Structures are given as C-alpha cells and as structure tokens.
C-alpha cells in the first residue's frame, strides 16, 4: 500500500506540473478555459482530447499522472462499493477518501514499526554476539593466567580475583541482554541462535 500512496503523490505532482506546462506552451488559452485547466479537476482531459498538439509535453505529463493515479482510484472505488448508507454522493466520496487515507497511514505506520523492531533486534543480536565472543576470549586469558598463580604471588592472585569478578559481572550483563534479545525475537517470530554456553571462573 505504500507503493499506491507513493504513486498517488507522484501523480498529483506530475499533474500540477503538466497543467503548468500546458498553460505556458498554449498561450492561446484564454478566459474560463484557461482557469479551468489551471484548477478544475478533469479539465486536462478535455485539453488532451481537443488541443493536445498545442502542448504535447504538458498533455503527456497529465496523461501519465492519470495512469499513476489509477491504483489509488481503484482502492477508493472498492471502498465506495462497501458504503451502504443513504448519504449523498459527495459525503460518501469524502468519507471513502478519508477512510482510505487513514487505512494507508495505519499500514505505513505498522510497517515502519516492524522495520524499526527488526533493526533493533538485529543491533541487539550483534551486541550480544560480540559480548559472548569477548567473554570466551577473556575466559581463555584468565585460564592461562591462572596456570601461573601460586601462593608466593599474593598480588597476582588479588589481581586475578579482580579480573574474575569483572568477568562474572559482564557475564551477568550478557545474560540480561540475551533475555531481552529473546523477547524481541519472540515478537518477530524469527529466532536466531547465539551460543549461550558460558563458563564460570573460580576465584583463588
């Protein structure tokens, strides 16, 4: 539906540009007819039938704008057939146009929210994955360092314990981020697997 709205917007701009081109190229237009081509809906159709050779580029732009507006017009026609009340044609038309625009806006908003959620979930996935990889590397470094610890190096043991405590702090944060990622992915129904295998480090 975003495409339908986009085509309708392009058609409107193209129609306005085409009318201006017609008025600029066909200097013989005068009076009421000139005002009609400038502002009256449908007047460009009359011009395309009767005087198109005087401003071919402008008439072509208007014709293209009408073609681009057909999907939106079709959508309005479908909604118009669904109307069952006894209101006048004008009030029905206004109601249908408003309802169609409102429906399109809701769909655009829903698609935007979905896209935003997907981007947020992707960013969260990359973040959690990066933390888990860092934890693995950190664990290997701690294990290598632990191999050289002994009771004769109390300062090294104290430093090792500080690093181990920091490791466990990041590990806890990683679990919270992973739980939030699971909630985000469950809303999308798209579960990506991250290696959640973590190892605890024992303080000395």
How would you describe this protein?
- The protein has helices at residues 2-25, 31-39, 43-50, 56-81, 89-146, 154-188.
- The protein is rod-shaped.
- The chain is built from 6 helices and no strands.
- The mean pLDDT is 76.
- 12% of the residues are buried.
- Helix 1 (2-25) runs antiparallel to helix 4 (56-81), helix 4 crosses helix 5 and helix 5 runs antiparallel to helix 6.
- 78% of the residues lie in helices and 0% in strands.
- It has 204 residues and is an all-alpha fold.
Biggest sheet descriptor: none
Q: In terms of per-residue confidence, which ranges show pLDDT below 50 for 5 or more consecutive residues?
A: none
As a percent range, the share of helical residues equals: over 70%
SSE order:
HHHHHH
Key terms:
rod-shaped, mainly alpha, 204 residues, 6 helices
Strand and helix layout:
Blueprint (H helix, E strand, L loop, with lengths): L1 H24 L5 H9 L3 H8 L5 H26 L7 H58 L7 H35 L16
Helix pairs in contact: 1-4, 3-4, 4-5, 5-6
